[in-house]
Amino acid sequence: MITIKSNREIELMKQAGNIVYQTHQYLKPFLKEGITTEEIDHLAEQFIRSKGATPSFKGYDGFPGSVCTSINNQVVHGIPGKTKLKNGDIISIDIGACYKGFHGDSAWTYAIGEVDEEKKYLMEHTEKALFEGLKQVKPGNRIGDIGYAIEQYALKHHLGVVKELVGHGVGTDVHEDPEVPNYGKAGTGPLLKKGMVIAVEPMLNLGTADIYMLDDDWTIETADGKPSAHYEHTVAVTEDGYQILTGE
Fold it and tell me: Which residues pair with 66 in a beta bridge?
């Protein structure tokens, strides 16, 4: 069921989203060669808790980390561990925070040291694909308009669109209805209405769109081993467009 949030609920979600945004900003100086994903996870958890919130993902369906740390060809749901970041890596960090019962959710992809031109291209156009999707978020449009815009932008730039993983509604649960695919047909799907809150999150690959899951039952990787990038904002549908909740 798709829920419409009240102004008070959206204000709480904005506070949760801002904690997510602040956590991303806090982590940036630490994202250098030699840090482990486990250390990133600990830093994130401590920061989220210092703001009076809890990590949305910790224990979610048994997920062991506080954040998801996905390196290079890992698409999403990378489990923090002993892996050290290297110069030339890219890492997507997916962060959720729950504040007074409401969630914020945002992923961003970061370059470690000097990355090659292909990875720069992938990051640039995955981030731009996110904002192409967000342009379609307004009352009267449909979920399919968002996915169509993202898919068309990705295909124009020769990037693989992951179809098995989608965006979602956000509220008192970190994953709610509706599903928000990164592909689709314009003019189809649930109608967007003021007060809906959704996470839009393109996951685009430098090569094939095909993916597979590792034996840990969480980590998703590209089938061809090429890099993947992931950008996500939680947004509220307003009277005439959208408001990013996972920003300043």
Answer: none
Contacts of 237 (CB under 8 A, 6+ apart): 137, 138, 139, 192, 193, 194, 195, 196, 197, 198
Do residues 234 and 19 touch, judged by C-beta distance below 8 A? Answer: no
Nearest Cα to 184, choosing from 206, 173, 196, 200?
Answer: 200
Tokens 């720069």 locate to: 120
Structural tokens at position 57: 């993902």
- Residues 137-180 pLDDT 10s: 999 999 999 999 999 999 999 999 999 999 999 999 999 999 99
DSSP string, 122-172: HHHHHHHHHHHHHTT-STT-BHHHHHHHHHHHHHHTT-EE--S--EEE-SS
Helix (H) or strand (E) holding 22: helix 7-27
